[in-house]
Design a protein that fits this description.
about 200 residues, Arc Repressor Mutant, subunit A, Tetracycline Repressor, domain 2, 2 domains
């Protein structure tokens, strides 16, 4: 069982690299199998066809975001701390994952036309978590009434782009490239967003 799990992870790692580089449409199972060091028959047996490979890669990547959000809900006491903790968790997962941001940004750019149905359901779950956190913040008197969907995509979009442009920003502006780590990015976002969503006098 351990060997099978290892084989699956090697295949999914290789698939994630190819999907990040070429998108769903441009990815070829032959190349994924070659990078994973297995033949196509073994790939199909261990994981499945290209659609299943992509589904597994995306869902596996989303797990990190879900875990960060659920952990924030369990470990914090008020909405502002919860939302700040979520931002840190999402940033850490994005910066620690070399290929996931590219896959998600490709989906956003393409209108999520190849995003698996299960992944869409996860996005809805994330939206509900953000909405419930913002509702809690309004009830606590800490947050203003803002559109939660826009807020969610503002946070994730900014984190994904910043995580994938560190080298570019260092080349363009070596003396002031902006936030280049997960913690710096989260702190920057918290500073900007809390100025916009917190009621006057409630910002920590």
């Amino acid at each position: 069982m351990a060997s099978r799990r290892m084989d699956e992870n090697v295949i999914l790692d290789a698939a994630a690299e190819v999907f990040a580089e070429k998108g769903f449409a441009g990815a070829r199972v032959d190349e994924i199998a070659s990078r994973a060091g297995v033949n196509k028959a073994m790939l199909y047996y261990r994981v499945g066809d290209k659609e299943e490979l992509y589904r597994r890669v995306v869902i596996r990547g989303q797990e990190g975001f879900r875990n960060a959000m659920i952990r924030s809900l369990a470990e914090t006491d008020d909405a502002q701390d919860t939302f700040g903790s979520m931002i840190h968790g999402v940033a850490e997962h994005a910066f620690n994952n070399r290929v996931l941001p590219s896959i998600i940004l490709r989906e956003f750019a393409g209108g999520a036309s190849t995003l698996p149905a299960e992944a869409l359901d996860n996005l809805r779950e994330f939206t509900e978590i953000v909405r419930s956190t913002m509702t809690m913040g309004r009830e606590e008197g800490a947050f203003r009434d803002v559109d939660t969907v826009t807020l969610q995509f503002l946070v994730i979009g900014t984190i994904l782009v910043l995580s994938r442009t560190v080298c570019l920003r260092r080349e363009l502006l070596p003396d002031s490239p902006g936030p280049v780590t997960a913690a710096e990015t989260a702190n920057f976002l918290k500073d900007i967003l809390f100025r916009g969503i917190c009621r006057e006098g409630s910002q920590q």
